[in-house]
Q: What sequence folds into this?
């Protein structure tokens, strides 16, 4: 069965302490991988789409990378405003996406 | 600004009561979706609609109903048949079909059974 798994479930970082979030997937024939940011009590907000292994995209302190089996969201020198839940999702063969359960990131000042 | 508006933000349901969650978009997107989000679980698809007057069940459609009479609107009714409706409900839309188009999400409705 196709699955999307995110790790860790929760991550606490000191401000300025860089780290990475992982999204691994088992879908066959990957057609893209999406990263979203979700703040408490709000809907997810689109961050990146990656389509092929080796692709990288950056936005401010975030950089997303993609391999054949997983994606990483690297956070460089995070700030408290980066605290949120980060979700990844991959499209399945039909008309919907598989979502991971997310990584809850807390950045402590 | 274009976007998706969900209302209300908070909703309380009594046992045996049907409630309707509103979702309106002004993005001119054809496809609209309803997802349910529970703690520790990924988003799960309830219903989706690719065109007016047509909709399909997702993975957890039991106890829910939808309508799509206008392109802009996709309301979700949580019926009394849904035994565990307490959750965060997200409406989303996409410009196109297929795997290359991401979602735009609304701000969500938190439904609680009282």
A:
């Amino acid at each position: 069965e196709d699955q999307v798994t995110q790790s860790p479930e929760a991550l606490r970082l000191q401000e300025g302490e860089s780290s990475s979030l992982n999204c691994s997937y088992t879908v066959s024939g990957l057609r893209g991988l999406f990263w979203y940011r979700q703040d408490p009590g709000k809907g997810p907000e689109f961050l990146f789409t990656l389509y092929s292994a080796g692709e990288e995209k950056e936005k401010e302190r975030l950089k997303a990378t993609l391999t054949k089996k997983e994606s990483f969201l690297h956070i460089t020198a995070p700030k408290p405003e980066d605290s949120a839940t980060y979700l990844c999702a991959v499209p399945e063969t039909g008309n919907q996406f598989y979502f991971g359960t997310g990584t809850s990131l807390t950045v402590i000042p | 600004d274009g976007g998706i508006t969900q209302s209300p933000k908070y909703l309380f349901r009594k046992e045996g009561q049907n409630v309707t969650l509103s979702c309106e978009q002004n993005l001119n997107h054809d496809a609209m979706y309803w997802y349910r989000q529970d703690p520790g679980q990924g988003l799960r698809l309830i219903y989706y609609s690719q065109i007016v007057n047509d909709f399909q069940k997702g993975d957890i459609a039991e106890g829910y109903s939808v309508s799509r009479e206008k392109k802009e609107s996709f309301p979700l009714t949580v019926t009394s048949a849904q035994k565990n409706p307490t959750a965060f409900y997200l409406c989303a839309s996409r410009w196109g079909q297929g795997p290359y188009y991401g979602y735009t999400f609304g701000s969500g409705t938190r439904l609680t059974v009282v």
